[in-house]
Amino acid sequence: MPKTGNIFTDIFSVAAIIFPLLPAGIVFIQKKYRNDVLNLLMVLCLLNFVKQFLLFVPQLNGASQNVITAIFTLFEFVILIQISKQALPDNTKRLANIFLIAFLSVIITFYLLEGIGQKMGAFEMLLSMVIIFTSILCIAQLIESNNLNILNEPLFWVSAGSLFYFSISILMHALSWYYDQMPKESLTEKEILIGIGSAAKYFLYTLAALFYQEPSNGKENRSSF
Hints:
This protein has helices spanning 7-18, 21-29, 36-55, 62-84, 90-114, 121-146, 154-174, 176-180, 188-211. It has 225 residues and is mainly alpha-helical. The longest helix is centred in the middle third of the chain and has 26 residues, at 121-146. The two termini are 35 Å apart.
């Protein structure tokens, strides 16, 4: 992602590389990765760091950037679904696994047929919609079952951060026809909105790590994926 010449856009571009390291670093340093949600969150943030670092390379052409975005978007989708499943009962988890396998099979098949180097805005919007739905479902489930301690639940903050960011992502995709008609130098507003959404997402992810307190007996109940 080369410099654009706009100071705000350039700041967000550089900060986007650093943001994922904050929650991942807190989880690792404070050894909170024994919690399933925080363990997956740490992996997700590290993958997003690698993604943003690769996209920052100015020599990459559009096709290469699309390949990187497609691969890491699928990784992010899978991990977020795995995180969201932690709020579901066991029977529903099995249905979620079936849905995830079928959904990914369709997407991967389509990419293999059409080429992964293409910009697949429709699929990105579809993935965002699924993540938004599962995030709302998780928050509703947490409010119903644990409303007094919800702020101590990492899943709440991860769901809230994902809901906020992917809502902005869908809005940007919905307005893509508008931005496609604008000159390239006039896209600063779009980049800043995405940057704000990314910053808010990782801020809420950071709260997930900060607010979590391990059980006093030092043992963490684990739920199967």
